[in-house]
Amino acid sequence: MTMRPPRPAPAGDLRPAGRRRAAVPTGVLAALALAACTARPVLAPAPPAHVVHRSPAAGTARPAPPRPAADGAGTATSALRRLVDDGAPGAASLTTRAGASSAARFRAAGVADLHSGRRIGRQDHFRAGSLTKTLVATVILQLVAEGRLTLHDSAAAHLPPGLPTRGNGTGSDLRRVTVHQLLDHTSGLFNYTADPRLSRQLSGTGFSPHRYDSHTPGELLRIALDHPPVAAPGARYAYSNTNYLVLGLVIEAVTGHPYATEIRRRLLVPAGLGHTSFPGTDPALPEPHGRGYSRIGHRRVDATSLNPSRAGAAGEMVTTLGDLNRFFSALLGGKFLAPRQMAEIRSEKGTGGAYGLGLYATGLPCGVTVWGHDGDINGSFARTAGTADGRHVVSYRINTDHLADPAHGTDVLTAEFCPRRPGDRPGTGPPSRP
């Protein structure tokens, strides 16, 4: 799930972290997803997480990150190195053009495993957090195109039987929230990952004893509805993982199948995304994979294994850089949605330019605008962005959930989409539009 804020985000969430329509200055951005304190899914009691202390004096052997060989694109490699210098154990990116994986460029810096010194591999699986949201939104818009629901329908009208639709005296009421407001985070629903008790279990000292806990969507929805809304429906943008938790339930009610089943049938199989999965309650990552690290106080904790049911449709997806590029190339290229729905998924009118219906735009310093999403969850942060036609796409990831300087993440995009010419200042390029 993405749990952090480049837009207004509640503490402990699974959201995108680094979106901006205007040119992004190379030194500031916001924190990672899910809100002020990126909340990620946690698991229940099981083998204790391996703890890696940050202090060299503590005897933690952090292998010196090997520098990648020159790849002919020093600025892109340098941007990844900056993420490692900021404290990420490892960073990697994959660039594709015109959907041609044969011409893809993979770069890596740092390590995938602090103990073995293993490097991040191109085929490594990782948790993608709120990048899940873009796939959920795509299926919802397909259902709209099929006439099976409308964007103006009430969320309560499309929920499986037995689920709550309003809180007990809190004012939260799904009958007043539309599908459109769920998609663009203007519902005002409280972000369930910001619940104080749950947030302590998702990260911080509660992580180890609760990392393998299982949670149902109905349970998480009740937690959200037990809080007053943060705004009236449609009043303003306020990122909330609850919105996409509900959208996953809407897909189930409308189709009769779990949201993950519909995503596989409608998106993964047609696009050949054979390395993307929705693990449910399975705490293990598919092979190959490296390790994922979270910071808890002054310690760095191995968070590779966890129960992702706390993320669900808001951020449980596991994938690879290659699959992310293939999906966004197909989506932006118009292969999944009709023109009307493509216009809707990109429309940020209801949020003042902060977020579309599962996508957001980022304006780069050279004038290029790219479209994509990001996501974080314990031990992992990833982001994908592409040109409007999907012919040029880059995904990058780090094996920790916190971007110490989000601007350095945007630098990865700038290096890819703003090619430098002799005389250009670093981080700039010819003004152009995708």
Notes on the protein architecture:
It is a single chain. By secondary structure, the protein is of the alpha+beta class. 26% of the residues lie in helices and 15% in strands. It contains eleven helices and twelve strands. The strands form three sheets. The protein has a seven-stranded mixed sheet with strand order 1-9-10-11-12-3-4, sandwiched between helices. Strand 6 (293-296) and strand 7 form a beta hairpin. Helix 1 runs antiparallel to helix 11. It starts with 19 loop residues before the first strand and ends in a 17-residue tail after the last helix. The relative contact order is 0.22.
Task: Tell me how many strands there are.
Answer: 12
Helix content: 25-40%
Distance between the termini: 28 Å
- For the biggest β-sheet, the strand order reads 1-9-10-11-12-3-4
Contiguous runs where pLDDT drops below 50 for at least 5 residues: 2-73, 426-434
Q: Looking at the structure, what is the overall shape?
A: globular
Rg computed from alpha carbons, rounded to a whole number of angstroms:
20 Å
Order of H and E elements: EEHEEEHHHHHHHEEEHHEEEEH
Return the average pLDDT rounded to an integer: 84
Largest sheet: 7 strands, mixed
Structural class: alpha+beta
